[in-house]
Amino acid sequence: MSAARPLTILRAIAVTATLPVLLTACGYGSEAKKEDNKENAAATGEKELSASEVRIGYFPNLTHATALVGIQEGLIAKELGTTAIKPQTFNAGPSEIEALNGGSLDIGFIGPSPSINGYVKSKGSNLRIISGSASGGVKLVVNPDKIKTLDDLKGKKIATPQKGNTQDVAFLNWIAEKGWKVDPESGKGDVSVVRTDNKVTPDAFKQGSIDGAWVPEPTASKLVSDGASVLLDETDLWPDKKFVITNVIVSQKFLKEHPDVVEAVLKGTVKTNEWINANPDKAKASANAKLEAEGGKPLDAKVIDPAWKSILVTDDPLASTLKTESDWAVKAKLIEQPDLAGIYDLTLLNKVLKAAGKPEVSDAGLGAK
Fold this sequence. Notes:
Blueprint lengths: L3 H23 L3 H15 L8 E6 L6 H8 L2 H6 L3 E6 L3 H10 L4 E4 L1 H10 L5 E10 L1 E5 L14 E4 L5 H12 L14 E4 L5 H7 L4 E5 L2 H7 L3 E5 L10 E8 H6 L1 H20 L1 H14 L7 H9 L1 E3 L5 H13 L15 H9 L14
Parallel strand pairs: 1-2, 1-3, 6-7, 6-8
Antiparallel strand pairs: 3-10, 4-10, 4-11, 5-8, 5-9
Helix pairs in contact: 3-11, 3-12, 5-6, 7-14, 9-13, 11-12, 11-15
């Protein structure tokens, strides 16, 4: 018995010593998973980037068509290889900026006003604009029985999505250029600016509590389908008929730690925009399918058809128009004069564009040094 026991113990020690090797060979443990990912990536020809996932935020909104179509069609995922997309939807810019600043979001599609506000509030430390995404898609629509000309807006109630948001700032500037007075905080004045969530605006219009709205698509076309008429397309107010409505932003921390992932996402957005412009009908159907998949209803043809035509997807961030919108917000006394130096970093975008044989884009002197 005494001779057998040491032998048993030695055998147990030998088995225990080989156990980590066996477990690793079977794929247990984080190191084994990393090796498996490398092997899987090599076997499938997929790229392995520096992050296992990227969290991308966007609105279930047609002005975020690049995100909707790029994710729906797998065009962004294809460039990411084994890096998984973790999509997150938002209904307002401030909540998306909060997620980015709080570390629960890496990359986001968002409008110029929240981009400016987020950059300024963090004193330039939390985000960068790395690409454009969309231009246009904003209209002034009105009750044709009450408003027939632009001068008829005086004394009427016009909705915008949110105090200080991109459309609100544009409308306040338009009012000021007419020589009319409106208090930017309360919205009271020669025109009553009624800050109303886009989801609520169609019902408010039907009930007669507003006479019109300065809103993005598809809300504008929803109102038209309910009897409103288009009095003004904001595109007509801009040089070259282009102005930024959606940017792509990134957490500076994520950009610094995972530039390869950011570059891959930008390759995906550039290819998505190219596909959308080459296949407008297919892209429109894809965006509508994604909206339905997000838990909503697909848009009726009478809504999505005119809405889609008014939006231009573009890689160009149209940086000079963001500066103009910032100046309007200052003029309306909604913000103090901001220092926007460094809000853009278009280095990776221009690298991607150059490789694709496309012209590089400008940061209008607001690029990171």
